[in-house]
Amino acid sequence: MKTHTILLAITLALPLAAQKRDFLTADEIDQVRLAQEPNERLKLYVHFARQRLDQLEHMFAQNKPGRSSLIHDTLDDYTKIIEAIDTVTDDALKRKLAVDEGVAAVAQAEKEMLPALKKFEESEPKDISRYQLSLKQAIETTSDSMELAQEDLQNRSKGVQAKEEREKKELESVMQPKDLEEKKAEEKKAATEEKKGRKPPTLYRKGEEVKK
Prior knowledge:
212 residues, mainly alpha, 8 helices
């Protein structure tokens, strides 16, 4: 009974430990923090995605013991990078920042990476059952992201703005009158300050700064 309890505790702890693992290295996180111009940040994420794909190709080419867990984790990291690309793009569109150059780089890269991922699946490696779900998710996420990257940016921007407006109204509908009044006052003040002196486009949020 005691052994069963210990094993159960370890099993429950594993997902939590996995969640804490970052999909970027410490150096990559620093690079992203420094790349505040959205096009540059998108290109950087594309570079990271290509690196993960190169790592996967190396892993699949060498049938080494224990590779399945490495393939699984690398696929998960790759998928999160692609998701980050879509998040950066939508966030920039919300702020009405130009991302044409970055999105073009994303579309071209994903057009090349998707067949490579499908090739991994079609090769039917013996250990595929251990990372099949992660591989399918990587393929689907890349396919969806590629469709977004190929979409007309004006239409995508309208969709993003409409979604933001819906979410804003939903949030305001559950706010207390006093909180809602304060929120609108802050928005009005921010809009006035922006008109007085526009700063260069940046992905920094309020209170963020580069660590020196």
